[in-house]
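re: that chain from earlier
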Amino acid sequence: MERNRLRNENGVALIIALILLLILTFIGISSINTTTFETIIAGNERIAAVAFYGSEAVFQYGLNQLPDTKFIPRTKIGDDCYGWSGGAKDKESPKNLAPLGLYSKAGYDSSWAFKRYQINATGESFLATKEVEAQVSYGPFPAGTQY
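^ sequence. v structure.
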C-alpha cells in the first residue's frame, strides 16, 4: 500500500504550474517596474535637453549681438523653455556679457588685436537648468599706433 502512495503523482502538475505562474508573475512585475523607471529617465533626459538647447539659443543670441555686452533678459524660448544671460542664480537679474580685453593672435602682427568676451547663458525647462559658458574672440581690429 505504501508503494502506491509514493507512486501516486496526482497534483504534481498543479504544483509545478503554480510555481511557474509565480515565477512569471515576478518577471512581469519586474518588467513593469523597469519600464516605468526607464520612462521617467527618458522624460528627465528630454527636459534636460530642452533646457540645454534653451541655453544654447541664448548663447547664440549673445554671440550675434557682440560687441554689445548688454544683458539678455529672461526670454521665453519655445513652449516650455526660458533663457537668460548669466548663471542659474541670475534669473531675476541677468548679467551683462563680460569683455575680457584685447589680445594678440598668432599670424597677425602687432598692429592688429582681437577683443575677447565671456558669454554665460542659462536655459530652464520645468525647473531643470543648464548653463553654457564660453570665451569668444572678436576681430581683428587695428591696434597700437598706425603709421
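Residues 2-142 form one domain.
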